[in-house]
Design a protein that fits this description.
- By secondary structure, the chain is mainly α.
- Among the domains are: 125 residues, no CATH class; 132 residues, no CATH class.
- The chain has 21 helices and no strands.
- The longest helix has 25 residues.
- 38% of the residues are buried.
């Protein structure tokens, strides 16, 4: 590794507004804690406003899809029964059922407003947690905010957010992010409360959605990144604790009674799932689709299959030229770990109607994949045209 690469890894995040807004830079330099808290609060407020603007209508929706079955499953069953049995379903995800049972007990009825409010609030929280994770990875504040905005406004959330019964997906995302952020805080400070918080969030994530078994691998990736950045002195095998937790849960999951379900590899389904993920990675470039020529509009799958790899390759090239390959590698690892199970197992019958299953992989692409235009404009173009292109693409996003 060259000296320039090592310098880029160890370089601390630049203060908000440095260079362009000197007064903000001076404020951040004099009161860094206050500046950080202010930026964090503004991001949280922005996420809440954005989710309210995009999905506020959902608070007036009736129940839909499987809500009549899922939301009422805890009625007449004890919390212990929900935790020890997946009765009435192919899957075992007890924590949301316990939450729905508690919410019903608090308000005394199945009020669509409150049940729809839960995923909306958690979705806004995920945008804020993504901002915190991006900052922890060394991404600048403005770019981290842009990544969070792209995540919150991502179109595939149309199922996971306004549908009350899809709480599994945003909730497991919030818990996994919380566990990783607490893991980082624990490694940096050694405080026991952060270890307790991280392990508790990881355990709750496992009982929310089975995709949380990836938390151990993600913790190992975060450990590697902190060592590379110099946040910690040396590598420690603490991620093995999370891997052990996931293995213990897998054993418990196999023993819990639930409806039988068989899995057979389906090459056609894998092909469609590949197109779904390519389409997801094309956001927000896909916004230009509405202006595509009619011949292309008749062949959307061929267009995605052609443009998707080209766009991903261009992003990889720009990131490499900007000397951010380590961050891109971390994002790619996160994407592979969280996307591979869904990509390989999602059947044809649900691939068109299950965009909520891509919420964890989207974190990686939003966190580390949308700062590359600015890097290209600043380090590759080195001219006014590149700067104008960056501003225009930002406005388009």
């Amino acid at each position: 590794m060259s000296a320039d690469q090592q310098s880029a890894i160890n370089r601390p995040p630049v203060a908000v507004g440095a260079g362009r807004w000197p007064h903000l830079a001076a404020f951040a330099g004099r009161w860094p804690l206050a500046a950080g808290l202010t930026a964090s609060a503004l991001v949280l407020l922005s996420m809440l406003l954005a989710v309210g603007a995009l999905y506020g209508d959902a608070l007036g929706y009736a129940f839909m899809y499987d809500d009549g079955l899922d939301l009422t499953r805890g009625e007449g069953r004890s919390v212990l029964s929900l935790l020890t049995s997946g009765e009435g379903a192919f899957y075992y995800r007890p924590l949301p059922f316990v939450l729905w049972k508690g919410l019903h007990g608090m308000i005394g009825r199945y009020d669509p407003f409150w049940f729809h409010l839960l995923p909306l609030v958690v979705h806004a929280l995920n945008g804020w947690l993504l901002y915190q994770m991006a900052r922890a990875l060394g991404v600048r504040s403005m770019v981290a905010g842009l990544a969070s905005a792209l995540f919150v406004t991502f179109p595939f959330h149309y199922q996971a957010v306004p549908w009350a019964g899809a709480l599994f997906h945003p909730l497991v995302t919030a818990l996994v992010l919380s566990s990783l952020l607490a893991y980082r805080a624990a490694r940096r400070s050694g405080a026991r409360r952060y270890w307790l918080l991280s392990l508790t969030a990881a355990a709750l994530a496992l009982f929310t959605h089975e995709s949380a078994v990836t938390v151990g691998v993600l913790a190992a990736g975060l450990e590697w990144w902190m060592v590379r950045r110099g946040d910690v002195n040396r590598w420690r095998p603490y991620a093995l604790v999370y891997l052990g937790l996931a293995l213990a849960f897998a054993g418990w999951w196999l023993s819990v009674p639930k409806w039988p379900r068989t899995f057979t590899p389906d090459l056609e389904a894998i092909g469609r799932n590949t197109l779904m993920y390519l389409q997801a990675l094309l956001w927000p470039l896909a916004l230009t689709w509405r202006w595509a020529p009619p011949p292309l509009l008749d062949r959307p799958e061929q267009v995605v299959a052609t443009v998707g790899p080209l766009a991903v390759g261009m992003a990889a090239w720009c990131i490499f030229r900007a000397r951010r390959a380590e961050l891109a590698g971390l994002a790619a690892g996160w994407l592979i770990v969280t996307a591979l199970p869904v990509w390989a197992t999602l059947p044809r019958s649900t691939s068109r109607t299950a965009p909520g299953s891509t919420i964890c992989p989207r974190l990686a692409s939003r966190c580390c994949g949308h700062f590359w235009p600015r890097r290209c404009a600043g380090r590759v173009a080195h001219n006014a045209c590149g700067a104008r292109w960056w501003r225009a693409s930002s406005a388009g996003c």
